[in-house]
Design a protein that fits this description.
Order of helices and strands: EEEHEEHEHHHEHEHEEHHEE
Bound molecules: iron/sulfur cluster
Number of strands: 12
Radius of gyration: 21 Å
Number of domains: 1
Shape: globular
Strand order of the largest sheet: 6-7-8-3-9-10-12-11
CATH superfamily: P-loop containing nucleotide triphosphate hydrolases
Strand content: 15-25%
CATH architecture: 3-Layer(aba) Sandwich
Structural class: alpha/beta
Largest sheet: 8 strands, mixed
CATH class: Alpha Beta
Distance between the termini: 28 Å
Low-confidence stretches: none
CATH topology: Rossmann fold
């Protein structure tokens, strides 16, 4: 559905760019595919490039290099009409249901806006369509006339999902969709997203820093570090045996469910280096417990490791 080839998004830092100024490498040479019907989880610490990658998928950012293709078409070679079609097919579910809904609009207007933009329904049919959407996300019909502040966090996220579904998309990019919610409400929203996926055949790109959440929703996991995908793997393989040292460190940072059996490895130390001045060689080498001779000077290349799995590490050449 999506095919990314050597995608980079760099930003100038200071005035002298491109003639010698610094460059922030938010996304730096990403190859990635998203197949129809799957949930691909993008994981990594904050600042690793996940949200920039999401903006590239949504055509909100133009790649500095490489191509982002959706259903075989380069997003930046589309005609104006094709861009409108793309905007309908790919929708965003925001992280913060508090900030993403216009507080001055009633729910009918918030959800109905996409129907207007894409000319999908008008008049009584529009109202009925909004009611149907509210029902699909588990909200009562009375919600139609409410304002965002009258709803709980979970209900607001349901409104946000109804708004995204109004355009009848094929793919949802969900950017930390449950991280602002209480744990009990998180499970309800995740179940809702899974039910909607099964009913509508949706494809999800699910962005999260929470590996406990990802384990429950993802079919495939792609781990980002300093703008690069360092490991991608089917979810079962990833959680059973993460191969990249950074993947292992991320999983070790997830609190052990059994306090009698603490995590086996020490937690990851040090901060993520600046994407303005990434370390030479493997960008993870200053924090890597397994770093060895070539790591500080040679950039590791992506290598296949079994079915559907790729790892970017000198240990796995
Ligand atoms: S390439 Fe070297 S430094 Fe990088 S993750 Fe692998 S072992 Fe660690």
């Amino acid at each position: 559905m999506f095919d990314l080839t050597a995608v980079a998004r760099h930003y100038p830092v200071g005035r002298a760019w491109p003639s010698g100024g610094a460059i922030l490498r938010a996304v730096d040479g990403v190859d990635l595919s998203v197949t129809p019907g799957e949930t691909l989880a993008l994981v990594g610490e904050s600042g690793c490039g996940k949200s920039t990658l999401a903006r590239l998928l949504l055509r909100l950012e133009r790649p500095t290099a490489g191509t982002v293709r959706f259903r075989g078409r380069d997003l930046w070679g589309l005609s104006r009409a094709e861009v409108r079609g793309f905007r309908r097919q790919v929708q965003l579910v925001f992280q913060d249901p508090y900030a993403s809904l216009n507080p001055r609009l009633r729910v009918e207007e918030i959800v109905g806006e996409a129907l207007d933009i894409h000319r999908l329904a008008a008049g009584q049919a529009r109202r009925q369509r909004v009611l149907d959407l509210l029902g699909q996300v588990g909200l009562p019909s009375e919600a139609l006339d409410g304002y965002p502040h009258q709803f709980s966090g979970g209900q607001r996220q349901r409104i946000g999902i109804a708004r995204a579904l109004a355009a009848e998309p094929a793919l949802l990019v969900a950017d930390e969709p449950v991280s602002a919610l209480d744990v009990s409400v998180q499970a309800q929203i995740l179940n809702l997203l899974q039910d909607l996926q099964a009913a509508r055949g949706l494809t999800y790109v699910f962005i999260s820093h929470d590996l406990r959440v990802v384990e429950h929703v993802a079919d495939r996991v792609a781990v980002m570090y300093l703008g690069r995908i360092v490991e991608s793997a089917p979810v079962g393989d990833f959680y059973r045996e993460p191969l990249h040292p950074y993947s292992r460190a991320l999983l070790e940072a997830v609190p052990a469910p059994d306090p009698e059996r603490p995590n086996a490895l020490p937690p990851l130390s040090g901060d993520v280096p600046s994407p303005v001045a990434p370390p030479p060689g493997c960008p993870f080498h200053p924090r890597c417990p397994n770093a060895f001779e070539p790591c500080s000077r040679e950039v590791p290349i992506r290598a296949p490791q079994g079915t559907g799995r790729q790892v970017c590490c000198h240990l796995w050449r």
